[in-house]
Amino acid sequence: MLTGHIVALRSSIRTLILIGGMGAIGAGVLTVGIGMDTPWAPWERQVDTMFPPVLFTLASFVATVAFCATTVIFHTLLKTVTSNPDKWWRTSGALFLVAYGMFSFGSGTLQAAIMLNILHLIVGLPALALLPSAVRHDGPSSSISLAGHRHPVDAVVH
């Protein structure tokens, strides 16, 4: 089972980096470029301390790649329990975007909440569209080793 997760992560790494880049560019444009508020800094006890914009931009890349990697693992888990993992993955992803969008309004200012919601759409919509196809591979006709090499699998008849 661990091998399936590793294969899915390896096959989706370019897509993860692309979506992470989109998140970082979106965060940079919204916070550094336009000057929108960032959310509260999680390491500060004072409520009025906001995330520094450049640090928020860099953290957006790391957080996007890490979170999307966990969604790839979630997708591979869905493959074991349902015949249509893409549908359930997209449905749960859309529900997450709605729930976290509402939760974002507790992140500091109204402007920070709007910025976070725009950023989550910049990341979430491409992730919902691109990640399921990035983790799909040839199916039972071939196997992939941990080194990334495809090996044909012949049916053995007894």
List the helices and strands and how they pair.
Layout: H1 2-11, H2 13-33, H3 53-81, H4 85-103, H5 110-135, E1 142-144, E2 150-152
Antiparallel strand pairs: 1-2
Helix pairs in contact: 1-3, 2-3, 2-5, 3-4, 3-5, 4-5
Distance between the termini: 27 Å
In DSSP terms (H or I, runs of 4 or more residues), the helix count works out at 5
In terms of quaternary structure, the protein is single chain
Largest sheet: 2 strands, antiparallel
* Count of separate structural domains: 1
- Helix/strand order: HHHHHEE
- The spatial strand order of the largest sheet comes to 1-2
**Gyration radius from CA atoms, angstroms:** 19 Å
Uncertain segments are: 138-145, 153-158
Into which percentage range does the β-strand content fall?
under 5%
Specify the overall morphology: elongated
User: What is the helical fraction, as a range of percent?
Assistant: 55-70%
* Mean pLDDT level: 81
**Structural class of the helices, strands and pairings?**
mainly alpha
The total of beta strands comes to 2
Explain what you see.
The protein contains five helices and two strands. By secondary structure, it is mainly alpha-helical. The protein has one domain. Strands 1-2 form a two-stranded antiparallel sheet. The C terminus is likely disordered.
